[in-house]
Amino acid sequence: MYQPAHFAEHDPETWLALMRAHPLATLVHHDASGQATIDPLPLRVTQQADSMLLQGHVARANPLWRHADGQTVLAVFHGPQAYVSPGWYPSKAATGKAVPTWNYVLIECRARLRAVDDPAWLRAFLDQLTVDHEAHRAPGWQLEDAPPDYMAAMLRGIVGVELQVQAVAAKFKLSQNRDPADRQGVLAGLDAEPDPAAAALAALMRR
Length: 207
Prior knowledge:
CATH class: Mainly Beta
Largest sheet: 7 strands, antiparallel
InterPro entries: Split_barrel_FMN-bd, TR_PAI2-type
Mean pLDDT: 94
CATH architecture: Roll
Low-confidence stretches: none
Structural class: alpha+beta
Radius of gyration: 20 Å
Helix content: 25-40%
Number of helices: 7
Organism: Ideonella alba
Number of domains: 1
Protein name: FMN-binding negative transcriptional regulator
Pfam family, one: FMN_bind_2
Shape: elongated
CATH superfamily: Electron Transport, Fmn-binding Protein, Chain A
């Protein structure tokens, strides 16, 4: 990933917050022929001392778990993104020297993937994953709500994946290369946009 120094984010807590808020990652790996391919995959992230672990599951019919087992892969988490108009910069009115750009946030995790074809592991993982996404709902769904034979069939149809993260590169392109007046102009422009992603991006800029 091209990474200008002024867009690099080095705070692990900031990484974790974004990855947990936007868990649907793009997993980049190689198929059986060696061609690069991608799979969208929700991933649960945990921090363990100085290491980071990503966990998820795929359909058993998906060849990813066979082909990528043991591979070094990329998991890319995408945060808010929005178009930035040059008309938002006060400097544009003074000099005319401005062009459109795009502000965005993403985190690239380089990791070793391990396939986990283990029913007990899967059950424990899915219990925790369900708690993550259902705890704030009333009432929240849980695995026990489904008939046991149905859930057993569903479990047989998936395989777990576990990614031990080796390196993280976080790019937060939030107008850090502009002067304070232009950054305020971008914030005002984003605040006026109807897209919720623009509001989320503005909140990240303010942080």
